[in-house]
Design goal:
This protein is α+β, with helices and mostly antiparallel strands. Helices cover 32% and strands 30% of the residues. It has three helices and eight strands.
Amino acid sequence: MAINKLNDRAIANLKPGDELQIQRRVYRFEPEDMTALAAMSVEELQALREDSIAKETAIFDKLCEDTGAWETQATETMLINLAMEYVKTKTIEHTGNQWRPDGYNNGQEISNAVYKMHHHIYEETKYNRDSKQSVPVAWYLTWAVRTQSAGHYSGSIAGQQRKRFTDKAVMRNTCRAVSKRIPTCSRKYLRPSRRNLPRISR
């Protein structure tokens, strides 16, 4: 909720817990009577001017102090706003940093309140005439890491589609290396960082 106060000389806007703007201006005008001032010398006028500027500066300094007090109070308002957002946020379901089947194509998933990772492995086989049976020759790994969200959408951080491996152990180590770099966070308001994730060549 913004609070605005406007007139022909001033603009004042307040966004509680966010922003304060005050702008005021004195426009040049034609004085009704300047006889007393006009009768003074330049030196006398200069002395009056310096005194007026000193008083104006004192008022300005007081305003700066008041804006500092506003900043302190606005910080408290912001903290209350963040607490309200936290309380209103729906509880995010996750696996508690444990792997479990994701119920789709023999995939696995691991998640916490901030991150979620899933992977699916497709095994390529080839018929072996000597053994007369199909034997694995390659494995294709598809994985993705996303941020958790209480809503319908979440942000994608990293992932690969059908990364081919001819060594099953290397493929599993790659998947394990990615999952270990997911922070074990539990607070909903933490922000994810790409620096927490490894770089894996395509």
